[in-house]
Every structure is written in structure tokens, then in C-alpha cells.
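Worked example 3. Consider a protein that binds magnesium ion.
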Amino acid sequence: MLRADQRRLGQAINTRCGIVSGVFGATALVDLAGETLRAEAGTHPVVAGDQVTVAEIGGNLTIVKLQPRRTKLSRPDVGTGGEQVIIANIDVVVIVVSVASPPLHPRLIDRYLVAIQQGGAESAVFVNKLDQLTDPSELDCLNPYIKSGVPVLMGSAAERSGFEELQAHLRGRVCAFVGHSGVGKSSIVNRLAPSAQLDTGSVSEGYGRGTHTTTTSSRHCLADGTVLIDTPGVRSFGLYRLTSEEIVASFPEFAGCECRFADCTHTHEPGCGVREALDSGHLSLVRYEAYVRLRDELR
Ligand SMILES: Nc1nc2c(ncn2[C@@H]2O[C@H](COP(=O)(O)OP(=O)(O)O)[C@@H](O)[C@H]2O)c(=O)[nH]1
Ligand SMILES: [Mg+2]
Ligand SMILES: [Zn+2]
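Given these inputs, the predicted complex is written out as C-alpha cells:
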């Protein structure tokens, strides 16, 4: 604990533990045994899902302690290049994509899969707006992910289809929804947690891109113990201090491949099991190319 914290705790009364459900500048919403209260973030940069201790200091509720994070999802901070934690203590991160407006972007899935693996959570993909699917071949690009073992679920928040499977997959766990703006993250959370009443946005005609309707993450608890965290949309997703091991770890289909060299990068070495699997058709070219693209970012 920081010395400043100890000093503060000395004057603190009514110390209680809670979970951050949203952050607005220097103020955090903290769920404390059923009631949600505003607390000053103090010296602690907190995010939705953080477990914190709050105390009354000089009449103000203030966060005085941040518990270590069990899992997290991070990206590089645009300004400083340091770590920007987006959400904490999640079990599953659902990467939401939509089949139309905005169209499917598998490359964003690749990036999220690595970052989610890096932060210690489980990944899933939810393909939304199935009601807008005109050409079923648009879904073919998801086959490599399904083959690699990523749970890929589909449905429509507008028509409420596919939600039983989604609910069953998430039940009892802490789940965050991430992805491009306009794919329907907030609409999905509203369907699963009607009391959330999140604003949902329009998708601009010209680009098929979403506008940033959701500006901050928010946390919603369901009666069955499931916790849902809605997050603001992204235009792109940077990767924070990625290592080659972390990239490989997000490609479970590489696990059975044996390479001649223990430190094989699977790019140019002779006797590479990964490239043999690629040549023999056991490994998808799309996934291999995703690997090579991510590796290129290491340099
Ligand atoms: N056709 C269709 N539109 C949807 C669906 N889900 C969401 N939308 C619409 O897509 C737009 C963006 O939704 P929103 O939930 O704000 O997306 P977010 O930015 O990912 O949170 C809104 O106009 C929603 O009404 C869906 O399943 N089908
Ligand atoms: Mg939203
Ligand atoms: Zn290799």
C-alpha cells in the first residue's frame, strides 16, 4: 500500500469493499453490496470490474485500495505508449462483429484474441446482425476460428435470435463485450440485461461505421449471477508489449506441430512443423497469415 493510502486510511471511516461498475473522469461508480455509489478514484486509475476498497475521507467516498487484477484486457495508451487497462477481472471477453454495417473484420478478431489471451481471460466471438445477412458466404471467413477452437456464436440483437446459446455460454461468468463501434455491443447487453438501458447508436450511411455512442464501460449484474460489461467501441486495437510466446499462445492449432528448432519462429526455418501443417492443408492459410502479420509487429 502506498504511504499516501496509509495516511488516508488513518483518517478513513466506514471502509467497505466493492466493484467498480463505471468510470467518469476522476469519479468511479462502485457497487457496494447491492447499492451503487460514486467514489473519487483518488490516486488509483481504476476500470470497470476492479475490486476496490472505499472509505469516507472528509465526508467524501474515496477509493483507498485497488486489489490485484485476476485478469485484464489492455492496449497501449495512445498518448504515452504505456499500458492502458480497459477492463479487469473478466472471465470471458466476447468479440462482437457484425455481418453488415460495419462488415466483418476478421483482422480485429486476430488482434483481440492475442490481447485477451495475454490478459488471462477466455475468448468468444459473437456475430451480430444476422438479420442483415444477404450472402451466407460472408461467414466463411470465420471457419478458421471455429476450427481453431474459438467459440463462435451468432444471432441478432434486433430479432433476439441466438441469445439462448449466448446466455448459456456466458452463464455465471463475468463477461465483457468488445469490438468496433456500431456492431451492436450495447444492443446485446440491453437484450441480456433489460435494466441496463444503454444508449445505442446509429451507423453512418457512407462508411458503414458506427458512431461512438458508448463512451465509457459499464457493468450489469443478472439474476443468474452473470455479469456483463459493455465497453466503448474502437476503430482499431493496438497490442501492448506483445512477446512472440504470447502470439503463439493465441494459436492453439500450432500446439501439435513439431519443429526442428526449439526457438522456431515458423517463418523461414527448415523442419518447421507449422509450415508443414500449412503445406499439407492441416492449418488454415488465413490463420497462418494472421500469425505472420502479428509477428511483424514485434519488430
Ligand atoms: N439490423 C440490426 N441492427 C442492429 C442489431 N444490433 C444492433 N443494431 C443496430 O446497430 C446500431 C449500433 O448498435 P449499438 O448497440 O449502439 O452498437 P455498439 O456501438 O457496438 O454498442 C444501432 O442502430 C442498433 O439498433 C441487429 O442485430 N440487427
Ligand atoms: Mg455501445
Ligand atoms: Zn516452426
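Take a moment to read the result before moving on. The chain has three domains: 3-66, 72-230, 244-296. Residues 114 and 250 are 5 Å apart (CA to CA).
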